[in-house]
Amino acid sequence: MAISINLTVNGQPCDIMLEDPRVTLLDMLREHLHLTGAKKGCDRGQCGACTVLVDGRRINSCLTLAVAMDGAEILTVEGIAGDAGLHPVQEAFIAHDALQCGFCTPGQIMSAIGMIMEGQAGDEPERVRECMSGNLCRCGAYLGITEAVLEAQMRVSPAVHRSVA
Ligand code: FES
Ligand code: FES
Asked: What domain count does the chain have?
């Protein structure tokens, strides 16, 4: 049974025909829209590699049905850089060497942006680690990730992120 949905992805309106109502948001992004930034690490909500923002809130897109996204605004890692350059969280990840293989990085960055939007980041490393605990990094780049998030959250107010999302 094909189902049509309308949603906004990275600021662009999209009309999508889903041939299977069981398609996840992650598969829709990767296979229908060819936005492969969000990664399929575990496909069961355990690694956070598939994290995207839906109406400003971070979610595991592998656990979310695409049909439930009708009318939603989706922000993926492909949509966060602006005309002026990289997003401050992206810049901070580079500055702090917050990655090795990079597989988890899109999810880490989207989770960090979501956390900052939620006003939860604070200035304590332990707080950041707790709020990012759903994003695993097999390379163990947690030190750089935490430092990057702490720096980025000082540069960007939650209000700015809400306007982006
Ligand atoms: Fe979604 Fe791992 S791929 S949480
Ligand atoms: Fe390799 Fe995180 S940088 S899994």
From this structure: 2
Full residue range of the structural domain in which residue 148 is found: 88-155
Q: What is the dihedral of CA 154, 129, 56, 20, to 10 degrees?
A: 150
Whether the CB of 137 sits within 6 Å of ligand 2: yes
pLDDT computed for residue 81 by the predictor: 96
Ligand 1 nearest-atom number relative to CA 43: 3
Domain membership of residue 65 (yes or no) is yes
Residues 150 and 94 in one domain: yes
Q: Which two tokens stand for residue 46?
A: 């355990």
Could you tell me the distance, in angstroms and rounded to a whole number, from the CA of residue 84 to the centre of ligand 1? Answer: 31
For residue range 138-157, what is the model confidence (pLDDT) as tens digits?
A: 999 999 999 999 999 988 86
- CATH code, domain with 120: 1.10.150.120
Q: Please say whether the beta carbons of 14 and 6 come within 8 A.
A: yes
Domain membership flag for residue 160: no
- Which ligand does the CA of 63 lie closest to? 1
pLDDT in tens, 72-95: 999 999 999 999 899 999 999 999
Q: Which residues line ligand 1 (CB under 6 A)?
A: 40-43, 45-50, 60, 62
For CA atoms 78, 54, 114, 27, the dihedral sign is: negative
Kindly give the distance from the C-alpha atom of residue 49 to the centroid of ligand 1, in angstroms, as a whole number.
5
Task: Select the more confidently predicted residue: 165 or 49.
Answer: 49
User: Measured from the CB, is residue 54 less than 6 Å from ligand 2?
Assistant: no
